[in-house]
């Protein structure tokens, strides 16, 4: 304690010199935070503003939809916390003709003694969050702030119930005064990096999201979409493609972020969780985002989000702040009360410095390395940093000061008020039917395919060019016995090279899987629905490739001119592409990375081609590995065998002027086929079963591995050091 006091005294002296009257600038350049009902009043960070004390009165209305918060002039429980309430920023007057936003009955959220442990996450301790306590009220913005790896996102996910099932969570969470339960549609969660569909316009993207999420008629969902567009100020971008087209640029990062938030607003949630809403945004886009969220909160929605750092203007929009460092809660309360808390602990914010910068400077251990590197360097104004206290000491000082402060007692009092009487339970909103979601995903995927020329139409052109090349190389073979071996080589090259070319579709499949993971995490989609929608939408495209490529190859090579044989060839090649698509989907869902997916698929195709029975006859392959099981797993084997049986069974070739041999005998030295006339249909059946089998494996991978979160977690109400969670 003596060390802490000495360091605090040193800091006070350096801070006071940095903010002395001689060094102050005119008040017009001060950071502005507003007193309730006042505009642009400058506030000195050293002096606490003399405002009338206010308290927050919580009324639980019988039969109501939410807990309403109001301010009344009462005796404050905390002089610093209760001087400022969530109404510190007055709402600007509405312009004439402006549309009044729809009011939302929000919900209160309380977390008490919340501890999260993840094995191996931290070097010295598995506790990522340590006994955090706080609350969020309707119509307010509660921000979780701290340096990198301080536990911000983990705390937000723990409150929303979106941590992995292996994570252990201790403590209590209440929603509207009742134990934590947030059913479908009552809350929304926006990831740090949301996956959007670049080939759709903003309005189309939100409309398809509404169709996936909401039951009811299509016309009813259009009004919901328009409300979401208006709420996030996207009216000017509603008809623009998210990702752009040709020489047209897509939406900037700020608008993309607002689109991802608008997708969750389609459900009209009572509580909205956002992980880093200012991620990758410049200062102007960040301010516009926060003003939009402030407007959204004014409708009654409960907003909670994480943030790493903010500008002075953005900081003034926050209602409450939860400050974390290495999982420890250093402060929870009103934003300006946090400034007072730092001042009480010996770290007053200097004039002309952003509060968030000051907070992070005091609690971010990375600054210790910077100070050590620059300890002998001084600028024209003196020391490199006004904070000359060791960060670890500062963190301990702030934590100890907060635990013994009236601010922490006021938080406990508020939590007691919010939880002593249970409020109304949140009601689950209905979902769209399974058939509706399958139809929506199918139609949306078809629309995406029609616009994604790089992944779909370019592939079709490449297939045609490859088929044309193979066909011209092997053209003019005739129907003599000497042409049999060459025709086998042509069919082998056609099946092998086209299957390799299909790997060019991996990026498109990876985008679909990322979109599925994003939608599944919010329960907008499911593995079964996604697979059927993807299958139904891919069938027209694959059939278009198969029939166009087959026609070019079939007539250039000069195969038998019979319509039934041509249709079998097209169907065989279509199933071959369908099996390959399933294999690509399986590998891509396992890796979820373009490089490793392509590398794995190329390796698998090379192994399958080697054992397909052309380079060496199937019966002559080494039985271990190559014949069993590789040759039976390779779909090339069944496709090539079926095409050859379709072409050469029930045919004969003249040998000299007297003797003839059957097509089966002519093929014996080139490829191994069956004498059974129904064998080609058996090969077709095997291809069909392989296509189904690969998609069953994809279903298992998607269901258990991709984008899975537990909807809600069970909490242990005791000390994690003594008990295990239930």
TrEMBL record:
<keyword id="KW-0812">Transmembrane</keyword>
<feature type="transmembrane region" description="Helical">
    <location>
        <begin position="563"/>
        <end position="587"/>
    </location>
</feature>
<keyword id="KW-0472">Membrane</keyword>
<feature type="transmembrane region" description="Helical">
    <location>
        <begin position="531"/>
        <end position="557"/>
    </location>
</feature>
<dbReference type="InterPro" id="IPR013525">
    <property type="entry name" value="ABC2_TM"/>
</dbReference>
<feature type="compositionally biased region" description="Low complexity">
    <location>
        <begin position="12"/>
        <end position="26"/>
    </location>
</feature>
<feature type="region of interest" description="Disordered">
    <location>
        <begin position="1"/>
        <end position="26"/>
    </location>
</feature>
<feature type="transmembrane region" description="Helical">
    <location>
        <begin position="681"/>
        <end position="705"/>
    </location>
</feature>
<dbReference type="InterPro" id="IPR052215">
    <property type="entry name" value="Plant_ABCG"/>
</dbReference>
<dbReference type="Pfam" id="PF00005">
    <property type="entry name" value="ABC_tran"/>
</dbReference>
<protein>
    <recommendedName>
        <fullName>ABC transporter domain-containing protein</fullName>
    </recommendedName>
</protein>
<dbReference type="InterPro" id="IPR003593">
    <property type="entry name" value="AAA+_ATPase"/>
</dbReference>
<feature type="compositionally biased region" description="Polar residues">
    <location>
        <begin position="1"/>
        <end position="11"/>
    </location>
</feature>
<dbReference type="Pfam" id="PF01061">
    <property type="entry name" value="ABC2_membrane"/>
</dbReference>
<dbReference type="GO" id="GO:0140359">
    <property type="term" value="F:ABC-type transporter activity"/>
</dbReference>
<comment type="similarity">
    <text>Belongs to the ABC transporter superfamily. ABCG family. Eye pigment precursor importer (TC 3.A.1.204) subfamily.</text>
</comment>
<dbReference type="InterPro" id="IPR027417">
    <property type="entry name" value="P-loop_NTPase"/>
</dbReference>
<keyword id="KW-0547">Nucleotide-binding</keyword>
<feature type="domain" description="ABC transporter">
    <location>
        <begin position="109"/>
        <end position="351"/>
    </location>
</feature>
<dbReference type="GO" id="GO:0016020">
    <property type="term" value="C:membrane"/>
</dbReference>
<feature type="transmembrane region" description="Helical">
    <location>
        <begin position="456"/>
        <end position="477"/>
    </location>
</feature>
<keyword id="KW-1133">Transmembrane helix</keyword>
<keyword id="KW-0813">Transport</keyword>
<dbReference type="InterPro" id="IPR003439">
    <property type="entry name" value="ABC_transporter-like_ATP-bd"/>
</dbReference>
<dbReference type="GO" id="GO:0005524">
    <property type="term" value="F:ATP binding"/>
</dbReference>
<feature type="transmembrane region" description="Helical">
    <location>
        <begin position="489"/>
        <end position="510"/>
    </location>
</feature>
<dbReference type="GO" id="GO:0016887">
    <property type="term" value="F:ATP hydrolysis activity"/>
</dbReference>
<feature type="transmembrane region" description="Helical">
    <location>
        <begin position="594"/>
        <end position="617"/>
    </location>
</feature>
<keyword id="KW-0067">ATP-binding</keyword>
């Amino acid at each position: 304690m003596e060390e802490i006091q000495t360091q605090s005294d040193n800091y006070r002296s350096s801070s006071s010199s940095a903010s002395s009257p001689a060094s102050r600038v005119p008040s017009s350049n001060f950071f502005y935070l507003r007193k309730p009902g006042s505009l642009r009043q400058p506030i000195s960070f050293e002096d606490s503003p003399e405002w009338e004390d206010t308290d927050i009165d919580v009324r639980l209305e019988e039969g109501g939809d939410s807990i309403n918060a109001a301010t009344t002039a009462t005796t404050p429980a905390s002089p610093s916390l209760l001087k400022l309430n969530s109404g510190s920023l007055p709402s600007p007057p509405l312009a004439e003709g402006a549309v009044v936003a729809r009011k939302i009955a929000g919900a209160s959220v309380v977390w008490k003694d919340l501890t999260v442990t993840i094995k191996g996450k931290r070097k010295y301790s598995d506790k990522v969050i340590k006994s955090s306590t706080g609350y969020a009220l309707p119509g307010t913005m509660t921000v979780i702030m701290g340096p990198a790896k301080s536990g911000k996102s983990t705390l937000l996910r723990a409150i929303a119930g979106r941590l992995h099932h292996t994570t252990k969570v201790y403590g209590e969470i209440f929603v509207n005064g009742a134990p934590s339960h947030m059913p479908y549609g009552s809350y929304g969660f926006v990831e740090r990096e949301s996956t959007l569909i670049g080939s759709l316009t903003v309005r189309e993207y939100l409309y398809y999201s509404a169709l996936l999420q909401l039951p009811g008629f299509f016309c009813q969902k259009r009004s919901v979409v328009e409300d979401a567009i208006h709420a996030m100020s996207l009216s000017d971008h509603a008809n623009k493609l998210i990702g752009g087209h040709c020489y047209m640029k897509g939406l900037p990062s700020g608008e993309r972020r607002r689109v991802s938030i608008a997708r969750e607003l389609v459900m009209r949630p009572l509580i909205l969780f956002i992980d880093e809403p200012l991620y990758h945004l410049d200062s102007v886009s960040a301010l516009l985002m926060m003003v939009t969220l402030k407007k959204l909160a004014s409708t009654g929605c409960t907003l909670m989000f994480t943030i790493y750092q903010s500008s002075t203007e953005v900081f003034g929009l926050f209602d409450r702040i939860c400050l974390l460092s290495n999982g420890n809660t250093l402060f929870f309360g009103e934003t300006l009360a946090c400034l007072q808390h730092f001042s009480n602990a010996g770290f007053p914010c200097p004039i002309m410095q952003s509060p968030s910068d000051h907070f992070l400077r005091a609690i971010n251990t990375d600054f210790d390395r910077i100070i050590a590197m620059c300890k002998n360097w001084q600028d024209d104004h003196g020391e490199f940093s006004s904070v000359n206290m060791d960060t670890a000491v500062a963190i301990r000082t702030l934590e100890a000061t907060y635990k013994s402060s009236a601010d922490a007692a006021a938080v406990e009092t508020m939590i007691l008020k919010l939880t002593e009487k249970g409020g109304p339970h949140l009601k689950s909103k209905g979902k769209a039917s399974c058939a509706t979601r399958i139809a929506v995903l199918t139609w949306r995927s078809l629309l995406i395919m029609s616009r994604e020329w790089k992944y779909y139409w370019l592939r079709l052109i490449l297939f045609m060019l490859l088929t044309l090349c193979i066909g011209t190389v092997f053209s003019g073979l005739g129907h003599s016995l000497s042409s049999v071996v060459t025709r086998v080589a042509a069919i082998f090259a056609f099946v092998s090279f086209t299957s390799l070319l299909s790997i060019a579709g991996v990026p498109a499949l990876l985008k679909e899987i990322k979109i599925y993971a994003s939608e599944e995490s919010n329960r907008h989609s499911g593995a079964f629905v996604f697979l059927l929608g993807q299958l139904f939408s891919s069938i027209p495209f694959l059939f278009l490739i198969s029939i166009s490529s087959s026609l070019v190859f079939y007539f250039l090579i000069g195969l038998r001119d019979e319509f039934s044989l041509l249709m079998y060839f097209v169907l065989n090649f279509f199933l071959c592409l369908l099996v390959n698509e399933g294999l690509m989907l399986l590998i891509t869902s396992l890796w979820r990375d373009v490089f490793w997916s392509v590398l794995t698929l190329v390796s698998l195709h090379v192994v399958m081609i080697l054992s397909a029975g052309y380079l060496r006859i199937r019966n002559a392959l080494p039985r271990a590995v190559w014949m069993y099981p590789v040759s039976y797993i390779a779909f090339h084997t069944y496709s090539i065998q079926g095409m050859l049986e379709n072409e050469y069974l029930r045919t004969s070739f003249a040998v000299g002027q007297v003797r003839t041999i059957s097509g089966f005998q002519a093929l014996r030295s080139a490829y191994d086929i069956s004498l059974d006339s129904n064998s080609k249909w058996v090969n077709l059946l095997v291809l069909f079963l392989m296509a189904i089998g690969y998609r069953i494996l994809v279903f298992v991978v998607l269901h258990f591995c991709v984008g899975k979160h537990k909807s809600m977690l069970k909490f242990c109400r005791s000390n994690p050091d003594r008990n295990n969670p239930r």
